[in-house]
Design a protein that fits this description.
two-stranded antiparallel sheet, mainly beta
């Protein structure tokens, strides 16, 4: 990991993860995470949302399959990975730059939710046929939504 920009982001999934396979058969899941800082405004004596950060994330192989089975839109997650910058030209020939995260680790945030973990065998795949995937409450079910995030 020398010379890489590794970051950790805590936020909510914007969409359900999308699972695909490469021509070589490797699984890849893409998802977007929104992280919005909360700041306390002393003048109005209330919490306010700051500028939101939206990052597209990619996770590979068995972790991709686990993400697709376990995580859904609205869940609060903790994601760690390598930040990448990519530039391209859009249809109107305007140069654009996007930032994406190549995910090393991802999981549900347990600050206001609980999860049951089912460990996969070392070779990958499900531990037992019909074993339930990890479950998590949505942020709305797990706690008071007007509290600031941790």
């Amino acid at each position: 990991m020398s010379g890489e920009t590794v970051i950790t982001i805590v936020g909510n999934l914007v969409d359900d993860p999308e699972l695909r396979w490469t021509p070589a058969g490797a699984a890849v899941a893409k998802f977007r995470v929104a992280s919005t800082p909360r700041v306390f405004d002393r003048q109005t004596n209330e919490w306010k949302d700051g500028e939101g950060l939206f990052l597209t994330c990619s996770v590979w192989r068995q972790a991709a399959e686990n993400v697709a089975e376990t995580l859904t839109r609205g869940m609060r997650v903790v994601v760690q990975g390598q930040l990448k910058q990519r530039s391209y030209e859009d249809r109107d020939q305007v140069k654009r730059t996007v930032y994406e995260l190549d995910v090393y680790e991802v999981g549900p945030s347990l600050a206001r939710a609980s999860a049951k973990v089912t460990k996969n065998p070392v070779g990958g795949g499900q531990a037992t046929a019909g074993a339930p995937p990890a479950q998590q409450q949505s942020p709305q079910q797990a706690g008071d939504s007007d509290e600031p995030p941790f």
